[in-house]
Write a structure and sequence with these properties.
The complex is a heterodimer.
Chain A lengths: L1 E5 L8 E3 L4 H9 L12 E4 L2 E3 L11 E5 L6
Chain B lengths: L6 E5 L4 H12 L6 E8 L8 E6 L1 H17 L3 E12 L3 E9 L2 H18 L2 E7 L2 E4 L15
Parallel strand pairs in B: 1-4
Antiparallel strand pairs in B: 2-5, 3-4, 3-6, 4-5, 6-7
The chains are: A alpha+beta, B alpha+beta.
């Protein structure tokens, strides 16, 4: 199982999903009305490393984070 | 906590004098000819009472460590302090500093370090309005590579 965390203002509890890659996650989240509008603006990290493609395989125990637009300082 | 305590996070507003004095005391004997400190202060504008912040520490630490490596290649170091939670107007939420043997390196690094922080560090800002947190969406920047799941 893979844990999905939604950071900052997305304000959604983590999900635990049986998925094999980020493409499967994309399909599932496009059907989630709480999240779909954030997808265009969110960066994605797998196990705390930012990734630039959804051609990423996922293994059980992996953690995926969605990071919406940032503004520190 | 970041290694060597060069990235410090605080709940609420920053104790600016305590932080900057400690940095100066720690590094003035290290033969850095230039120590540049940037202090960000929350402005009273648009009717806000202050700002509030969420931080995702694992990726912030990775981001900061990559900057430390970059600075070290120029014989410099970077330092940073940031607030979590609420920070009221006219207090500080963010301090960045560069210590370098050479003035020009420090001036250029502090500019790049602060600008990259604004667009890359995993920190989310909210305005505090009538006691509520309102995400500062219009002032926020997409992290490079955003949108791959869309």
């Amino acid at each position: 199982m893979v844990t999905i965390e939604f950071l900052g203002p997305i304000n959604k509890s983590p999900l635990t999903l049986d998925i094999k890659n980020l493409s499967e996650l994309s399909i599932l989240l496009k059907d989630d009305t709480e999240v779909v509008n954030w997808l265009e603006n969110c960066a994605v990290a797998v196990n705390d490393t930012l990734v630039s493609s959804k051609d990423i395989q996922l293994n059980s125990g992996d953690r995926v984070c969605l990071l919406p637009p940032v503004c520190g300082g | 906590m970041n290694k060597e305590n060069r990235l410090q996070l605080f709940d609420g507003d920053l104790p600016v004098e305590e932080i900057t004095n400690a940095w100066y005391d720690e590094f003035r004997n290290s033969n850095f000819g230039a120590i540049i400190t940037f202090v960000g202060v929350v402005r009273d504008e648009d009717g806000i009472d202050g700002l509030s912040f969420d931080i995702y520490e694992p990726i912030l630490n990775n981001w900061f460590n990559s900057w430390q490596e970059k600075a070290n290649k120029n014989n410099a170091i970077v330092l940073m302090a940031h607030s979590r939670g609420d920070v009221l107007n006219h207090t500080s939420s963010y301090i960045a500093a560069v210590c370098s043997p050479k003035r020009r390196v420090a001036l250029e690094l502090i500019d790049e370090f602060v600008e990259d922080f604004k667009k890359s560090a995993p920190i989310w800002k909210y305005d505090i309005i009538d006691g509520k947190r309102v995400y500062a969406e219009e002032r926020s920047t997409k992290i490079e590579g955003s949108g791959i799941l869309a």
